[in-house]
Specification:
Layout (H helix, E strand, L loop, with lengths): L1 E9 L4 H15 L7 E7 L4 E8 L2 H12 L12 E11 L14 E9 L4 H9 L2 H7 L2 E9 L4 E8 L2 H13 L12 E11 L7
Length: 205
């Protein structure tokens, strides 16, 4: 399984229009393949939408995208509102379960870590020993590593019922030694995060 994460930066004031238009046209795109999630930023870099598409492999991605492009309803007519676009393809962290969908939010934290080259196997090993107790505190939607795009990036997405719950869980996890997992010094180069909400049509909400 692979996941294409497409991040669009929008012009200020256009977010609601883009979400409505995308949702209408997604109904025509859905027969070809469905979203894993459609998020928009609440805290962090504003005016972003993030749509995440699962595919069996790159061949299926190419086939589905070509079929969808033949539809007069796809892509949605939002080009005038787009400032920039970025696409990255990720593979799942084998330490985590399959992508979680359904009503598990409504707040989601997307954390993106830049790893040192060669650090992914050690990261997987560290997660395998700690993710079980951590996931009991709040769901991990998915943990992913880049396959195409900027390499050595680790994206992990966490679901919370509220921002207060997020703060409480993160504090408890640190106090009780549940999380973060211990790892080799120097494995992390950069860290960034954003809080996102899900669009009404997102399978993960």
């Amino acid at each position: 399984m692979i996941y294409e994460v497409r991040t669009y930066v929008l012009t200020p004031g256009s977010l609601n229009t883009v979400i409505d238009t995308f949702g209408e046209h997604y109904e025509h795109r859905k027969p070809y393949s469905e979203l894993a999630a459609f998020f928009y930023t609440e805290i962090g870099p504003l005016n972003e939408i993030i749509h995440i598409w699962p595919y069996e492999n790159t061949a299926e991605r190419e086939r589905v995208r070509a079929q969808a492009a033949e539809s007069p309803h796809w892509p949605p007519p939002i080009r005038e509102h787009i400032v920039s676009q970025r696409s990255e393809v990720y593979v799942p962290n084998p330490a985590t379960p399959e992508w979680q969908t359904g009503e598990i939010g409504p707040y989601f934290e997307m954390r993106t870590y830049g790893l040192t080259p060669g650090a992914i196997p050690g990261t997987v090993e560290a997660w395998q020993g700690h993710i079980g107790p951590r996931a009991e505190l709040s769901p991990v939607v998915m943990s992913l590593f880049t396959e195409y795009g900027e390499l050595n990036r680790h994206l992990h997405i966490w679901a919370y019922q509220s921002l207060d719950q997020r703060a409480e869980i993160r504090d408890r996890a640190r106090r009780e030694g549940i999380w973060p997992p211990k790892g080799a010094p120097g494995r992390l180069q950069t860290q960034e995060n954003k809080i996102v909400l899900a669009a009404p049509f997102s399978p993960t909400r």
